[in-house]
Write a structure and sequence with these properties.
With 397 residues, this protein is an alpha/beta fold. It has two domains: 249 residues, TIM Barrel (Alpha-Beta Barrel), CATH 3.20.20; 73 residues, Orthogonal Bundle (Arc Repressor Mutant, subunit A). 37% of the residues lie in helices and 24% in strands. The chain has 16 helices and 17 strands. Strands 9-10-8-7-6-5-4-1-11 form a nine-stranded mixed sheet, with helices on both faces. The longest helix has 17 residues. The two termini are 25 Å apart.
Length: 397
């Protein structure tokens, strides 16, 4: 019975096992803040303090090193903001400093988020020489009118040229971000966006719905013509079929990849792996097998405050040890986004909790047709993937 597979041996006391480790680096500036963006990004005013910020990142990393002594880093992700505002030499300097302090895996994935409006000829060659081997383009749409409504600084032609520049520089691991359910968007326009993206042959695509997040311009003043829920679902279904037919397998709620090209960094997030969060407003999650706890740490958001305090306790915005009551929810919030699901053994090793902790909510999820459980493995159904938030809420403390 599905419920019986969750209880197991009550004499067994799971121990928390440290999972794979990634490194997230936040570069907080952008040319202009987009009206839908709720990330910690700040419009650049004048010349950016590249050197001072890299200095601060290195001090920040030094401060967090004791949390991860001896562990191997499997991926690095430069997010923002617009990381491609930073010159390749600055990225190189940080990676050199990080590699001297951390053990980088031989097959290290290093991703740089890039705004097509900041792409320059020759720049991608230098990013590649610095060690960046994966580029992620925030294109969002190839419709020029929609780009204006979204406050983007590039047009569709610049987006296509930027991707080709990266590919010409030798990048064979490229992601394109696209949004759907945009203001005044039709199904045909959403499909056309995918067709334009397919023509560029990226290895990975992130395809996600526009949401109006608090503390954004769009939340305060919603744009007209946002598709209703049924229309958005219709767009999603059609686009999912197009992505599958083009050879992009969906492996997460909004992530699609060619074979073997899943984002290793994001997979680590979704599998409840660990990650150091370095930079202004960066969040990290670190498991300690010795102390049997999972720590979330975040840094002060304002770039100047961060630079002034980096390397000292004053730069830490907060530390939060996740309680045993909250751990199942935190785990499911990530794992239930993945099509592959999770194993009950993995739940125990990543949380240090017995599988009996989730027996009842998992039983309910199975009864509702949202999840299947076979032996040690639990997996969301197609219906469960449609109602991911409802499934996750079952695990709230």
């Amino acid at each position: 019975m599905p419920g019986e597979t969750c209880t197991g041996d009550h004499d067994h006391a799971p121990r928390l096992v440290t999972p794979p480790l990634a490194l997230y680096v936040h570069l907080p500036w952008c040319v202009r803040k987009c009206p839908y963006c709720d990330f910690n990004s700040h419009a650049a005013k004048g010349e950016l303090p590249f050197e001072a910020y890299i200095d601060a990142l290195i001090r920040d990393l030094d401060q967090d090193l004791p949390l991860v002594w001896g562990r191997v880093v499997s991926s690095v992700f430069f997010g923002g903001g617009t990381p491609s505002l930073f010159p390749p030499e600055a990225i190189d300097r940080f990676l050199q400093a990080a590699s001297a302090r951390l053990r980088f895996a031989p097959n290290l994935e290093v991703t740089l988020e890039t705004n097509p409006g900041t792409a320059e000829h020759g720049r991608f060659d230098r990013y590649r020489a610095a060690g960046v081997n994966r580029i992620s383009f925030g294109i969002q749409t190839f419709n020029d009118e929609a780009l204006k409504r979204l406050g983007r600084i590039h047009d569709s032609g610049e987006a296509e040229r930027a991707v080709k520049l990266a590919q010409d520089a030798g990048y064979d691991n490229v992601n394109i971000d696209l949004m759907y359910a945009l203001p005044q968007q039709t199904l045909a326009q959403a499909e056309h966006d995918l067709e334009r993206a397919f023509a560029l042959q990226p290895t990975h695509m992130s395809h996600y719905q526009l949401t109006l997040e608090p503390n954004t311009v769009f939340f305060a003043r919603p744009p007209q013509g946002i598709p209703d829920e049924d229309s958005a679902w219709d767009i999603q279904e059609h686009c999912q079929q197009m992505l599958a037919e083009a050879g992009y397998a969906q492996y997460e709620v909004s992530a699609y990849a060619k074979p073997g090209r899943q984002s290793q960094h994001n997979l680590n997030y979704w599998r409840f792996g660990d990650y150091l969060g370095i930079g202004a407003g960066a969040h990290g999650k670190i498991s300690s097998g010795a102390e049997e706890h999972v720590l979330r740490r975040w840094k002060h958001k304002h770039p100047q405050t961060f630079m002034d305090t980096a390397g000292t306790a004053a730069s830490i915005g907060g530390d939060d040890v996740i309680s045993a009551e909250r751990l199942p929810f935190e785990y499911m919030l990530n794992l239930l986004r993945l099509h592959e699901g999770f194993s009950l053994k993995d739940f125990e090793s990543r949380t240090g909790l017995h599988r009996a902790r989730i027996a009842e909510p998992l039983r309910i999820a199975v009864a509702k047709g949202w999840t299947t459980v076979a032996g040690d493995d639990a997996m969301p159904t197609e219906l469960g993937r449609r109602f991911t938030n409802d499934v996750v809420e079952l695990f709230l403390p």
